[in-house]
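Board notes, transcribed. Complex of a protein with fe (ii) ion.
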Amino acid sequence: MGVSRRGFIGILGAAAAAPRLFAKAPSDYDPNLTVLLSDLHVNGTSDSHQLGRLERAVGEVLALNPLPARAVVFGDIACMYGRKEDYLRAATALKRLEDAGIPVTLGVGNHDRRSMFLEAHPDYATRTKVPGRIVTVCDAGTVDFLMLDGLQGTDDRAWNDMGPLAGLLDKAQQDWLLAALPAWKKPVFVCSHYPVGDLSVGGQPLSRLLARVPAVVGYIHGHDHRWYTRDMGMGWKKTGAKRTLCLPSTGAWGDIGYALMRTSKGRAVASLVQREFYYPRPPKPGMPVQHLWDAIVKANQNQTCAFAMPEKI
Ligand SMILES: [Fe+2]
Protein backbone atom coordinates (compact mmCIF):
# COMPACT_ATOMS: atom_id res chain seq x y z
CA MET A 1 0.00 0.00 0.00
CA GLY A 2 1.29 3.44 -0.75
CA VAL A 3 2.72 4.50 -4.07
CA SER A 4 5.30 7.25 -4.50
CA ARG A 5 4.66 10.20 -6.77
CA ARG A 6 7.00 8.66 -9.31
CA GLY A 7 5.14 5.36 -9.00
CA PHE A 8 1.89 7.22 -9.53
CA ILE A 9 3.13 8.68 -12.80
CA GLY A 10 4.33 5.21 -13.71
CA ILE A 11 0.86 3.82 -13.11
CA LEU A 12 -0.58 6.46 -15.39
CA GLY A 13 2.03 5.59 -17.97
CA ALA A 14 0.94 1.98 -17.80
CA ALA A 15 -2.64 2.94 -18.62
CA ALA A 16 -2.43 1.90 -22.23
CA ALA A 17 -1.25 -1.59 -21.25
CA ALA A 18 -4.01 -2.16 -18.70
CA PRO A 19 -7.08 -0.36 -20.01
CA ARG A 20 -9.64 -1.80 -17.59
CA LEU A 21 -7.88 -0.84 -14.38
CA PHE A 22 -5.85 2.17 -15.46
CA ALA A 23 -7.85 3.67 -18.25
CA LYS A 24 -7.77 7.18 -16.80
CA ALA A 25 -5.80 10.00 -18.37
CA PRO A 26 -3.60 12.35 -16.30
CA SER A 27 -6.18 15.07 -16.94
CA ASP A 28 -8.74 13.01 -15.00
CA TYR A 29 -6.80 13.75 -11.79
CA ASP A 30 -6.44 17.03 -9.94
CA PRO A 31 -2.82 17.07 -8.74
CA ASN A 32 -3.79 19.53 -6.00
CA LEU A 33 -6.70 17.49 -4.63
CA THR A 34 -6.18 15.03 -1.77
CA VAL A 35 -8.81 12.97 0.03
CA LEU A 36 -8.36 12.71 3.81
CA LEU A 37 -9.78 9.61 5.56
CA SER A 38 -9.63 8.84 9.26
CA ASP A 39 -10.78 6.38 11.92
CA LEU A 40 -11.82 3.57 9.60
CA HIS A 41 -12.22 1.00 12.43
CA VAL A 42 -12.68 -1.86 9.99
CA ASN A 43 -13.69 -5.22 11.46
CA GLY A 44 -11.93 -7.90 9.46
CA THR A 45 -14.18 -10.80 10.41
CA SER A 46 -17.69 -9.43 10.03
CA ASP A 47 -19.62 -7.15 7.69
CA SER A 48 -19.64 -4.20 10.03
CA HIS A 49 -21.28 -0.82 9.53
CA GLN A 50 -17.76 0.66 9.55
CA LEU A 51 -16.74 -1.29 6.46
CA GLY A 52 -19.94 -0.44 4.60
CA ARG A 53 -19.42 3.29 5.24
CA LEU A 54 -15.77 3.07 4.15
CA GLU A 55 -16.82 1.38 0.92
CA ARG A 56 -19.43 4.07 0.38
CA ALA A 57 -16.81 6.81 0.88
CA VAL A 58 -14.44 5.08 -1.55
CA GLY A 59 -17.23 4.83 -4.11
CA GLU A 60 -18.00 8.54 -3.76
CA VAL A 61 -14.35 9.47 -4.17
CA LEU A 62 -14.09 7.34 -7.30
CA ALA A 63 -17.08 9.20 -8.76
CA LEU A 64 -15.39 12.60 -8.40
CA ASN A 65 -14.42 14.45 -11.54
CA PRO A 66 -11.58 15.23 -11.48
CA LEU A 67 -10.30 12.51 -9.19
CA PRO A 68 -8.05 13.31 -6.26
CA ALA A 69 -4.41 12.51 -6.97
CA ARG A 70 -3.87 10.78 -3.63
CA ALA A 71 -5.42 9.70 -0.32
CA VAL A 72 -4.08 10.01 3.22
CA VAL A 73 -5.41 7.89 6.11
CA PHE A 74 -5.09 9.24 9.66
CA GLY A 75 -5.05 6.02 11.67
CA ASP A 76 -7.38 3.73 13.60
CA ILE A 77 -7.55 1.49 10.57
CA ALA A 78 -8.29 -1.52 12.80
CA CYS A 79 -11.61 -1.94 14.56
CA MET A 80 -10.46 -2.21 18.20
CA TYR A 81 -7.35 -4.26 18.88
CA GLY A 82 -5.29 -4.23 15.68
CA ARG A 83 -5.97 -7.67 14.23
CA LYS A 84 -4.34 -8.58 10.95
CA GLU A 85 -7.75 -9.38 9.42
CA ASP A 86 -8.80 -5.78 10.02
CA TYR A 87 -5.85 -4.46 8.01
CA LEU A 88 -6.40 -6.92 5.19
CA ARG A 89 -10.06 -6.05 4.88
CA ALA A 90 -9.40 -2.31 5.03
CA ALA A 91 -6.68 -2.76 2.40
CA THR A 92 -9.16 -4.50 0.12
CA ALA A 93 -11.54 -1.56 0.40
CA LEU A 94 -8.76 0.98 -0.17
CA LYS A 95 -7.30 -0.98 -3.08
CA ARG A 96 -10.12 0.32 -5.24
CA LEU A 97 -8.51 3.76 -4.88
CA GLU A 98 -5.08 2.44 -5.75
CA ASP A 99 -6.46 0.49 -8.70
CA ALA A 100 -7.89 3.78 -9.97
CA GLY A 101 -4.45 5.44 -9.76
CA ILE A 102 -5.00 7.11 -6.35
CA PRO A 103 -2.09 6.11 -4.08
CA VAL A 104 -2.92 5.73 -0.38
CA THR A 105 -0.62 6.76 2.48
CA LEU A 106 -1.49 5.15 5.82
CA GLY A 107 -0.91 6.34 9.39
CA VAL A 108 -1.60 4.52 12.67
CA GLY A 109 -3.73 5.37 15.70
CA ASN A 110 -4.38 4.10 19.21
CA HIS A 111 -6.45 1.12 18.03
CA ASP A 112 -3.69 -0.06 15.70
CA ARG A 113 -0.91 -2.57 16.28
CA ARG A 114 2.30 -2.00 14.34
CA SER A 115 3.27 -5.65 13.94
CA MET A 116 -0.07 -6.53 12.36
CA PHE A 117 -0.10 -3.35 10.29
CA LEU A 118 3.35 -4.25 8.94
CA GLU A 119 2.32 -7.81 8.11
CA ALA A 120 -0.37 -6.34 5.86
CA HIS A 121 1.81 -3.46 4.61
CA PRO A 122 5.47 -4.58 4.81
CA ASP A 123 6.69 -1.72 2.59
CA TYR A 124 6.19 0.71 5.50
CA ALA A 125 9.05 -0.97 7.41
CA THR A 126 11.49 0.54 4.92
CA ARG A 127 9.43 3.56 3.90
CA THR A 128 9.33 4.97 7.43
CA LYS A 129 11.54 7.93 8.35
CA VAL A 130 11.99 6.54 11.88
CA PRO A 131 12.84 2.83 12.24
CA GLY A 132 10.32 0.97 14.39
CA ARG A 133 7.59 3.57 13.81
CA ILE A 134 5.23 4.36 10.91
CA VAL A 135 6.38 7.85 9.91
CA THR A 136 5.83 8.75 6.27
CA VAL A 137 5.88 11.71 3.91
CA CYS A 138 3.20 11.99 1.24
CA ASP A 139 4.34 14.31 -1.56
CA ALA A 140 1.26 16.25 -2.65
CA GLY A 141 2.99 18.52 -5.13
CA THR A 142 2.59 21.99 -3.64
CA VAL A 143 2.65 20.57 -0.09
CA ASP A 144 3.80 17.53 1.85
CA PHE A 145 1.74 15.59 4.37
CA LEU A 146 4.09 14.39 7.13
CA MET A 147 2.38 11.57 9.03
CA LEU A 148 3.73 11.02 12.56
CA ASP A 149 3.26 7.88 14.67
CA GLY A 150 1.98 8.62 18.16
CA LEU A 151 0.77 5.09 18.94
CA GLN A 152 1.74 4.15 22.51
CA GLY A 153 0.27 0.67 22.58
CA THR A 154 2.87 -2.07 22.30
CA ASP A 155 2.60 -5.04 19.97
CA ASP A 156 2.65 -7.57 22.80
CA ARG A 157 -0.42 -6.19 24.55
CA ALA A 158 -3.31 -8.60 25.11
CA TRP A 159 -5.81 -9.06 22.29
CA ASN A 160 -8.59 -7.49 24.34
CA ASP A 161 -6.40 -4.49 25.24
CA MET A 162 -7.08 -1.37 23.20
CA GLY A 163 -3.90 0.26 24.51
CA PRO A 164 -3.50 3.82 25.81
CA LEU A 165 -5.97 6.33 24.41
CA ALA A 166 -3.61 9.31 24.24
CA GLY A 167 -0.75 9.75 21.80
CA LEU A 168 2.96 10.04 22.49
CA LEU A 169 6.01 10.54 20.27
CA ASP A 170 8.90 8.27 21.28
CA LYS A 171 12.36 9.77 21.84
CA ALA A 172 13.76 8.71 18.46
CA GLN A 173 10.81 10.26 16.64
CA GLN A 174 11.12 13.46 18.66
CA ASP A 175 14.82 13.71 17.82
CA TRP A 176 14.14 13.08 14.13
CA LEU A 177 11.37 15.68 14.05
CA LEU A 178 13.43 18.31 15.88
CA ALA A 179 16.17 17.90 13.29
CA ALA A 180 14.08 17.42 10.15
CA LEU A 181 11.16 19.84 10.50
CA PRO A 182 13.10 23.15 10.81
CA ALA A 183 14.95 22.19 7.60
CA TRP A 184 11.76 21.41 5.63
CA LYS A 185 12.00 23.07 2.22
CA LYS A 186 8.35 23.16 1.12
CA PRO A 187 4.99 23.77 2.79
CA VAL A 188 4.09 20.83 5.00
CA PHE A 189 1.02 19.71 6.91
CA VAL A 190 2.14 17.92 10.05
CA CYS A 191 -0.29 15.07 10.67
CA SER A 192 -0.96 12.32 13.16
CA HIS A 193 -3.90 10.42 14.56
CA TYR A 194 -3.89 12.47 17.78
CA PRO A 195 -4.85 16.04 18.73
CA VAL A 196 -1.78 18.27 18.82
CA GLY A 197 -2.13 18.75 22.58
CA ASP A 198 -1.30 15.06 23.13
CA LEU A 199 2.16 15.37 21.62
CA SER A 200 5.36 17.02 22.74
CA VAL A 201 8.92 17.23 21.44
CA GLY A 202 12.07 17.99 23.42
CA GLY A 203 10.08 18.73 26.57
CA GLN A 204 7.87 21.32 24.82
CA PRO A 205 4.39 21.07 23.32
CA LEU A 206 4.56 20.04 19.66
CA SER A 207 2.46 23.12 18.83
CA ARG A 208 5.40 25.38 19.74
CA LEU A 209 7.66 23.71 17.20
CA LEU A 210 4.92 23.87 14.56
CA ALA A 211 4.35 27.57 15.27
CA ARG A 212 7.97 28.53 14.78
CA VAL A 213 8.80 26.49 11.68
CA PRO A 214 7.85 28.61 8.63
CA ALA A 215 7.18 25.62 6.36
CA VAL A 216 4.41 24.26 8.60
CA VAL A 217 0.99 25.08 7.13
CA GLY A 218 -1.06 23.49 9.88
CA TYR A 219 -1.79 20.31 11.79
CA ILE A 220 -4.36 17.66 10.83
CA HIS A 221 -5.53 14.73 12.96
CA GLY A 222 -8.30 12.23 13.66
CA HIS A 223 -9.10 10.40 16.93
CA ASP A 224 -12.09 12.49 18.05
CA HIS A 225 -14.37 11.42 15.17
CA ARG A 226 -15.65 14.99 14.83
CA TRP A 227 -15.05 17.77 12.34
CA TYR A 228 -13.61 20.76 14.20
CA THR A 229 -10.87 23.30 13.83
CA ARG A 230 -8.84 25.15 16.47
CA ASP A 231 -6.17 27.80 16.57
CA MET A 232 -2.92 26.33 17.70
CA GLY A 233 -2.24 27.39 21.29
CA MET A 234 0.09 30.35 20.81
CA GLY A 235 -0.81 32.64 23.70
CA TRP A 236 -2.98 35.77 24.00
CA LYS A 237 -0.59 38.09 22.16
CA LYS A 238 0.68 35.59 19.64
CA THR A 239 -2.43 34.49 17.79
CA GLY A 240 -1.26 33.16 14.48
CA ALA A 241 -2.76 31.82 11.30
CA LYS A 242 -1.82 28.22 11.97
CA ARG A 243 -4.74 25.95 12.67
CA THR A 244 -5.50 22.40 13.60
CA LEU A 245 -8.20 20.36 11.90
CA CYS A 246 -9.89 17.22 13.25
CA LEU A 247 -11.34 14.87 10.66
CA PRO A 248 -14.58 12.87 10.83
CA SER A 249 -14.60 9.08 10.96
CA THR A 250 -15.36 7.25 7.74
CA GLY A 251 -17.87 5.06 9.56
CA ALA A 252 -17.30 4.25 13.25
CA TRP A 253 -19.26 6.86 15.23
CA GLY A 254 -19.59 10.65 15.45
CA ASP A 255 -19.36 12.75 12.30
CA ILE A 256 -19.33 10.26 9.43
CA GLY A 257 -17.57 11.25 6.23
CA TYR A 258 -14.23 12.48 4.91
CA ALA A 259 -12.53 15.65 3.74
CA LEU A 260 -11.23 16.88 0.41
CA MET A 261 -8.14 19.09 0.59
CA ARG A 262 -7.44 21.50 -2.26
CA THR A 263 -4.05 23.16 -2.23
CA SER A 264 -2.76 26.10 -4.21
CA LYS A 265 0.19 28.44 -3.96
CA GLY A 266 -1.55 30.80 -1.57
CA ARG A 267 -3.77 28.58 0.53
CA ALA A 268 -5.16 25.19 1.26
CA VAL A 269 -8.84 24.51 1.92
CA ALA A 270 -10.27 21.34 3.40
CA SER A 271 -13.95 20.69 2.64
CA LEU A 272 -16.03 18.35 4.77
CA VAL A 273 -18.17 15.70 3.11
CA GLN A 274 -20.50 14.45 5.85
CA ARG A 275 -23.31 11.95 5.31
CA GLU A 276 -24.38 10.96 8.81
CA PHE A 277 -23.91 11.47 12.53
CA TYR A 278 -24.47 8.68 15.02
CA TYR A 279 -23.30 7.56 18.43
CA PRO A 280 -22.30 4.97 19.37
CA ARG A 281 -23.60 3.17 16.29
CA PRO A 282 -25.97 3.76 13.36
CA PRO A 283 -29.54 4.66 14.27
CA LYS A 284 -32.41 2.27 14.45
CA PRO A 285 -35.83 3.46 13.18
CA GLY A 286 -37.65 5.66 15.68
CA MET A 287 -34.67 6.44 17.88
CA PRO A 288 -35.51 9.58 19.91
CA VAL A 289 -32.17 11.28 19.21
CA GLN A 290 -32.49 11.01 15.44
CA HIS A 291 -33.65 14.63 15.05
CA LEU A 292 -30.53 15.84 16.90
CA TRP A 293 -28.25 13.73 14.74
CA ASP A 294 -29.94 15.00 11.60
CA ALA A 295 -29.48 18.58 12.84
CA ILE A 296 -25.75 18.00 13.33
CA VAL A 297 -25.38 16.72 9.77
CA LYS A 298 -27.37 19.67 8.44
CA ALA A 299 -25.31 22.20 10.40
CA ASN A 300 -22.08 20.69 9.11
CA GLN A 301 -22.95 20.90 5.43
CA ASN A 302 -20.53 23.03 3.37
CA GLN A 303 -18.07 23.32 6.27
CA THR A 304 -14.55 24.22 5.20
CA CYS A 305 -11.26 24.93 6.93
CA ALA A 306 -8.79 27.28 5.23
CA PHE A 307 -5.05 27.30 5.87
CA ALA A 308 -2.64 30.03 4.82
CA MET A 309 0.38 28.75 2.89
CA PRO A 310 3.70 30.23 4.05
CA GLU A 311 4.82 33.26 2.07
CA LYS A 312 8.43 32.28 2.39
CA ILE A 313 10.30 29.37 3.89
FE1 LIG B 1 -10.96 6.15 16.31
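The helical segments are 5-13, 49-62, 84-99, 114-120, 124-127, 171-180, 206-212, 290-300. The longest helix spans residues 84-99.
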